[in-house]
Write a structure and sequence with these properties.
Distance between the termini: 37 Å
Largest sheet: none
Oligomer: single chain
Keywords: Membrane, Transmembrane, Transmembrane helix
Shape: elongated
Length: 97
């Protein structure tokens, strides 16, 4: 499997995971607004959730697109860096949510 295929496969996985997390957050926000979910210390405002979700998925995507911007070939180190960035941001989101 070539480096370009690996990069696009990773981007596809991040996009699918991002969509799943976004839908989960959207359902939680709707439950909070309708009163089905009790208020907690954290504010589940949709703008905050959207901002963090965008950062969580655009950061690794930017890492994966950086070799293309610099006219280089992507390699496994780029994929590893994007995966570590995604996991770290996802971990922080789960801690503070």
């Amino acid at each position: 499997m070539g480096p370009i295929k690996i990069t696009f496969l990773t981007i596809l996985v991040l996009m699918v995971a991002g969509t799943a997390v976004w839908l989960k957050n959207k359902i939680r926000i709707i439950q909070y607004q309708t009163g089905q979910l009790s208020a907690s210390a954290t504010d589940l405002h949709w703008r905050k959730s959207l901002k963090h979700t965008l950062i969580m998925y655009l950061g690794p995507a930017l890492i994966l697109f950086m070799p293309f911007i610099l006219a280089q070939k992507p390699n496994l180190i780029d994929v590893g860096q994007a995966a570590i960035a995604y996991l770290a941001l996802n971990y922080l989101k789960n801690i503070y949510q």
